[in-house]
Amino acid sequence: MKPTDVAQANIRQFDFGSGAELAEALADTVAGALAAAITARGQATLAVSGGNTPKALFSALSRREIDWDKVTVTLVDERMVGPAHERSNHRLASLFLLQNKAAEAGFVPLYSENGDAAAAAVMASEAIDALALPLDVVVLGMGTDGHTASFFPGGTTLGAVTDPACPQSVMAIEAHGAGEPRLTLTLPRIVEAGLIVLHIEGDEKKAVLARALNAGPYAELPVRAVLHHAQSPVEIYWAP
Predict the structure, then answer these.
(1) Do β-strands 71-75 and 106-108 pair in parallel, antiparallel, or remain unpaired?
(2) pLDDT score of 165 more than 90
(3) Domain 10-221+229-239 in this protein, CATH class
(4) Cα–Cα distance measured from residue 109 to residue 121, given in angstroms and rounded to the nearest whole number
(5) Cβ neighbours for 212, distance < 8 A, ≥ 6 positions apart
(6) DSSP 157-188
(7) What band does 115 get if pLDDT is binned at 50, 70 and 90?
């Protein structure tokens, strides 16, 4: 692991030689933050993202020795598909994270089958608001289009979900690059977390991140909203 100095004071970047090395190190970091929260408050909360990138992290984290029965896991975002669907983030978390020792953790989904995405967002907001906020750990990913969570360029509610004063914890959003309608944690829930991690891999995403660290509109690279409003340093974990 090689710490990299970044111009922004609220960014800490760590580069690794491989995705496997990154996964083990990040699992230690996340497990440590969750254990500290349990010691301080008797419980901990973790929000995770989907995609292929976090699978190795989830597998490593699921084997860490912490009091998982005191941890509640939820999702940063979700597609409007059922938990058995191959594109469901609920399914991904169940298969790769909520296994081994982490099988004892609680889980709060975002998707609900009653109603459309807007109705599901209201129900998901209520579920998130019932947790012990702020969230202790949020693990984000990023696409090559600069989206994080479901903050997609051109998204129907992008202005609202990236508003630091957004009153909802979860909102619905649709975008050309998103596929299905999505549910996403809004910016306030993400940037208030005790530990915010941006987990990216590959040179293309590293180049996108370099652009995002420069000033510019959130609509162009929505990850900027998190980088610029985070209340604690964003820890960026990168591997080739």
Answers:
(1) parallel
(2) yes
(3) alpha beta
(4) 11
(5) 146, 221, 223, 224, 227
(6) THHHHT-TT---SEEEE--GGG-S-EEEE-HH
(7) confident
Cβ-contact 128, 108 below 8 angstroms:
yes
As given in the structure block, the two tokens for residue 216 are 């510019």
Q: CB-side exposure of 185: number of CA atoms within 13 Å?
A: 30
Cβ neighbours of residue 228 closer than 8 Å, sequence gap 6 or more: none
- Under 8 Å between Cβ of 156 and 173: yes
Flag whether pLDDT at 203 surpasses 90: yes
Cα gap 87→49, rounded to integer Å = 12
Give me the residue label for tokens 């019932």. 130
Closest CA to 50 of 11, 16, 85: 85
Q: Say if residues 140 and 198 touch (Cβ distance below 8 Å).
A: yes
Beta strand 44-48 with 71-75 is: parallel
- Give me the residue spans of the domains in the chain: 10-221+229-239
Structure tokens at 173: 């959003």
Stated pTM of the model:
0.95
Instruction: Say how far apart CA 89 and CA 99 lie, in whole Å.
Output: 15
Residue 42 has pLDDT above 90, yes or no: yes
Residue type, 48: V
Question: Which one, of 73, 22, 25, lies nearest residue 50 by Cα?
Answer: 73
- Spatial CA neighbour of 163 closest among 210, 232, 226: 226
The counts of H helices and E strands in the chain are 8, 11
State the pLDDT at residue 9.
Answer: 53
Compute the C-alpha angle 81/236/222, nearest 5°: 55
